[in-house]
Amino acid sequence: MDSDPGQPQRLNSSQHEPNQQQRRHNHLVELPTTHNSISDSTLSSAFTRRHLEAVTPGIDLSTYFPSTSPSELARPSYFSAADPNIPPGPANSSNLVERQVPAMAAALARRESLSDIRAANPDLSLSGNIISATFTTPHALNYCKGGHWDLKARRGQSALYDSFAHLSSDATPWHHTVVAWTGEIDFPQDLPSSPPEAPTSSTTVGVSSLNALSAPVPVDGNTRLPTPPIDGLWVPREDQQRLEYQLSHSKSIRTVPVWLSDENEVNNEGITLKDQARWRRYAEHDLYTLFHYKQHEPSDGRKERVQWADYYRMNQKFANRIIEIYKPGDIVIVHDYYLMLLPSMLRQRVPNMYISFYLHSPFPSSEFLRCLPRRKEVLEGVLGANLIGFQSYSYSRHFLSCCTRILGFPSDTLGIDAYGTRVQVGVFPIGVDAAKVESYAWVDSVTEKYNTLKKMYEGKKIIVGRDRLDSVRGVAQKLQAFERFLELYPEWREQVVLIQVTTPTTVEAEKEDAENKIASRVNELVMKINGQYGSLGFSPVQHYPQYLDQDEYFALLRAGDIGLITSVRDGMNTTSLEYIICQKDLHGPLILSEFSGTAGSLGDAIHINPWDLSGVAEKIHLALTMSAEKRMAMQNSLYRHVTSHNVQSWITKFVRKVYTVLGDSNLVNATPLLDRALMLSRYRSAGKRLFMFDYDGTLTPIVSEPSAAVPSERIINALRVLADDPKNAVWIISGRDQDFLKHHLGHIQKMGFSAEHGSFMKSPGSDEWENLAEKFDMGWQEEVLKVFQKYTDMATGSFIERKRCALTWHYRLADPELGLQLSRECEKELSAGVARHWDVEVMPGKANVEVRPTFINKGEIIKRLVQTYHSSGTSSEDKESGKVEFALCMGDDFTDEDMFRSLNGFSGPVLDPDHVFTVTVGASTKVTLARWHLLEPEDVIECVALLAGSEEGMQLGEVNLAALSSVEGHIPEKAVL
Ligand SMILES: O=P(O)(O)OC[C@H]1O[C@H](O[C@H]2O[C@H](CO)[C@@H](O)[C@H](O)[C@H]2O)[C@H](O)[C@@H](O)[C@@H]1O
């Protein structure tokens, strides 16, 4: 093996070793890619065989796995926790731990039992199950000929998968299940990714997918018959079941796969393309980018809508899958930005579910998040969780401020009041499996490569870097800083080598960028530096654009004199943690970007600003010249941190925090975000529907001047569409007087009205107003007016709204503090005076105080309406007979609670509770009798338009807008109304 340090070369003499030409130019040419220490196919075969042996005793598997040798089965791998070759269970893992990290072994020895946990949390009914939802399964899947599955270790996220392995092991008391998408399934060329073409009686010409299903059985006996797809993925059901069985019986990580369709698309040339990557597109294109403080030009809105729809649908599929396996008392942990809608979707289905969310990536400041078109939905989605965890304090602080600034939710440093409950926020920096790193980093094969490396660069200092080729990893900055270092410190020229390994990105949005810009920028810089500071015998930058295998990786980390991490933004940099472990004896300093999520935890590393090239250069010099004592002190402290804050302690602390938070949460008052998709489906299946809308603060936003609260065109049109449908009875139930309602909404002939909190009623289609307070003595009004006038005189800007029956004193335009104080006094005075000798109720409203007869209220109107519309008849064609099969009631204030109370009374005995939607609008902190929550009138309008659009879309025979809307969670504004 050529050991000339001047020649870039691979670190071993494997079959992948490049030829001489490649060596000379390896910074320009991508070398043949190697994989983890066990090649993908070997690993997968080993895995599959091991599992099938476990689950199918007695079956000879040798024909399926002809190439799996016993040594392959036995060989360990660090890179994937999902690798079944890592011995599972307490005996193996704790032995390892005890040998390697005594502190951790002691911690694990203090394993809590479930009964201890239950005893310490008597208010919770913990089942002992944890469901972890993560985007992709710990294994990449290969669908093989013959319908068998080959499983490969998935690259990346090793810390997360290690935490799953830990939770699944006997080292914890939990019964753990991972729910995850299969990921893009690798199909062999000769297997159909869509239904195979079936022969017709006279010809073998292909038929459409639909016909293929009903086509005659092929007679050759070889053609695999298409079965109806699960969501369009053309994997026969028995093969899906085979995989599900295999994954669910895994001893290392029990996994339940989520099947998502690959929904083939036909391109302009009529060629069918598989597009399995669509499910990651929104998350990786929009969220990942923005969370890393980057923005791309908006594309045409249509593409974005489709990506959002896929994201929404993908999250829904996860929710469905979790609900299938969920049992009361289970703890659900949702991981990362792919699944940000999932917490709310779960909360909507099971309001008292124990849900937590952990973000592995950074979270940006509100100034950045504001640029995300779906910012509100994304924040609302996560807020379905009881606990939200972040990698670093600044990410959690940004999140809190986004909730307050974008959603208007009250927050403090510990959490947010949302949807009638408290959502807690915490910082839990992830770690790595330190014991595992130690056990693999010093095996003979690594030491051999380490020795080779050291020999290769004898007499030189080695700076190591291993990054993904993402723009956020700062590889270009690293090279520029190194260049600056060589410029500023000529004495180090030819004395220092930077070995930079750059792995391909897996993030969709980065791929294009990476291929086009970053890769060429990095190559340019490597050439420039080597051209300027290199010689015939030596190139100062050794760039390896490739995956490293496990042995090479650890050998490199051990061989480094400096670890250099210059990411301009990352959630957690696990390479830095692994470097620290690998340097436990040699104490090579770690130079770490302050923009890495790890920086907050590794206070003893040398922190740098990667944008300050001279500053980084100085720190490289400092690290190279640091005394041995100082390096040792620094490294020892970092080592202690990394080994005690490992991935096992991370997940243990997080889970512990989940149940502590649950003990503090008031889940009884939780009011989930309205499940629009559910509402729409119930609406569409109902023969007879009843709508009851409050007006101010529900259909229109609250404004300072009552006369300015006019309905928008959009809501008028939507209400009209709903009211025109013979299946619907639509009512406005408001504190407003008849004139106001008539003026703004009276032209919707088929709508019913109740004015002044139930004092007056006008049925749909009628011109007559019924006065329900007719017989009531109005003598109280004079007394109330006197009191109101007194307060009006005291608060400049306040005024009295005089209606026919109800009276309102408004103080919104007065000084806010004085107004509030006087309103309390006014309410007290009226309650102690006029309300004692008249049968009237004094109600504090939104910057108002209202008085009306007690027996008249919105709840009474609801009773009348249900009694009127709900009859035991069966015809659903007219309003005179038939059962109400869908009821939607929306309101925002105290007076609307009467409506919810009444409807709740009917839910069960009269109306099917699953078909009654009571929705409160407004403050996230609100304690309400409503079952659902919406944030503001704009959301109400979206929902009303969604229902109206659903019918209209179908009537017009257009694209089924409702179907699109339901997956998108909103209705296209212009297209429908
Ligand atoms: O039952 P509602 O339809 O919600 O009506 C309740 C009262 O709403 C109006 O006042 C409130 O809205 C105004 C416009 O946004 C706002 O300026 C005022 O401060 C609020 O109190 C209306 O003026 C009252 O008559 C209704 O009783």
From TrEMBL:
What protein name does the entry list? Trehalose-phosphatase
Q: Quote any Pfam family the record assigns.
A: Glyco_transf_20
Which GO molecular function, any one, fits this protein according to its record? alpha,alpha-trehalose-phosphate synthase (UDP-forming) activity
**Residue span of region Disordered:** 1-24
Q: Which family does it belong to?
A: In the C-terminal section; belongs to the trehalose phosphatase family. In the N-terminal section; belongs to the glycosyltransferase 20 family.
CDD domains recorded for this chain? GT20_TPS, HAD_TPP
Any single Gene Ontology cellular-component annotation: alpha,alpha-trehalose-phosphate synthase complex (UDP-forming)
Q: Write out the coiled-coil annotation as residue ranges.
A: none
Where on the tree of life does the source sit, at the highest rank? Answer: Eukaryota
Any single GO BP term: cellular response to heat
